[in-house]
Amino acid sequence: MMRRPANSATDGGSNQSSVNQVEKSMQTASSGVDSSSQDWKANLKLPPADTRYMTEDVTATKGNEFEDYFLKRELLMGIYEKGFERPSPIQEESIPIALTGSDILARAKNGTGKTAAFCIPALEKIDQDNNVIQAVILVPTRELALQTSQVCKELGKHLKIQVMVTTGGTSLKDDIMRLYQPVHLLVGTPGRILDLAKRGICVLKDCSMLVMDEADKLLSPEFQPSVEQLIRFLPGNRQVLMFSATFPVTVKDFKDRFLQKPYVINLMDELTLKGITQFYAFVEERQKLHCLNTLFSKLQINQSIIFCNSVNRVELLAKKITELGYSCFYIHAKMLQDHRNRVFHDFRNGACRNLVCTDLFTRGIDIQAVNVVINFDFPKNSETYLHRVGRSGRYGHLGLAVNLITYEDRFNLYKIEQELGTEIKQIPPHIDQGIYCR
User: What is its main location (predicted)?
Assistant: First the structure.
């Protein structure tokens, strides 16, 4: 069963009244829809329906429809043409609250529809006739920025909203030129947006919405100073939406200082995704490659992501996998940005079956065809583990995570199981395809 979101005791009353108003008006609306207003749906170019099995992480909804939220028709057209049929639980909880203008602190699992949960209200609230930056979406990695801006463009393709993406590692001059043109929605990494704001080129005084995706990472020591400086360029009455799968103490401190009576959404009864089966194989370091070769030959892999703990090991392993005769790309933070973009784009489009990477790729990257994640090197902490295995089983589909465990990893394995309240079982001689391929 899907629970109501947990509200903090201090602001529960105001939160609840705004929810009641939203739900009352939705009920009134859905009862008074006339049939002629449905004709526009007949002309939509819908993608084929996704008939794969889905877990209750995305199916246990209250039964809302996107039309219940009074969204612009052009936005609804983009939503349906993107293949979204009805809101997932995190979208049901977030969209109506975000539309009221409330700040939100939302915790939901990877791969349950978080991106659309903030992109839809952002696109809805933008006035396309006002050529100023009205919403900023902050993300921690360049790949996630590209992916998120693409989702915004696809959802808003029938709207006249200008979406721009900006990250480090790309030409500052190009960004400056682009910002002399109209931009309504800016997606990017904190350092680059702060740089442009300090130069007076990226003007944020009319930006009424700030979204922080992967908020826990954005509030790590690497990013937090930039994020806090950036907020000072926004108006005092801005709306802040924070989304993440994990919320460490730093998030609470930031929330207390920068959010106004936030509405708290928590859809995290348990941490790991329901559709992901997790196994470990106990191996010596020198056996790892042989073990990986065996997995490749036995598993039904649509696409796989293989994680290593260092840049050097990523390149070395990718070379070895290619020598074994399997198609393989690799990606890490020390590569040139153009090269990274090309690898990400090609892997996403199915040009290659396997991708070896560092933790650069753990945050929010959404590639639907990935059904197997392999930890060639076991991660050091539960947060990294959670984000890695969350690359498979996207949007309620099934996935498989296989961990290659050495003698040195055994304590880490136990610790991560305890912290996540999950069970990682020993790999059986034969893995039933039904558990990750339905």
Answer: cytoplasm
| Cβ atoms of 189 and 140 closer than 8 Å | yes
Alpha helices in 299-355 (DSSP H): 311-323, 337-348
| Pairing of β 303-307 and β 104-107 | unpaired
CATH code 3.40.50.300 region(s) in the chain: 9-13+49-266, 276-437
Q: Is 9-13+49-266 in CATH node 1.10.150.170? A: no
User: Are the C-beta atoms of 90 and 114 separated by less than 8 Å?
Assistant: yes
Task: Specify the fold of 276-437.
Answer: Rossmann fold (3.40.50)
pTM above 0.70, yes or no: no
Note whether 370 and 305 are within 8 A (CB).
yes
Give the integer Cα–Cα distance in Å for 136 and 239: 11
3-state secondary structure of 73: helix
**Quick count: other Cβ atoms within 10 Å of Cβ 438?**
11
Distance CA 124, CA 72 (A): 7
Mean pLDDT of the chain: 83
Distances (CA, A) of 311 to 32, 356, 377, 409: 58, 10, 12, 19
Query: Residue type at 301?
Result: I
| Residue 354 · residue 402 · CB < 8 Å | no
Task: Give the residue-averaged pLDDT of 408-432.
Answer: 87
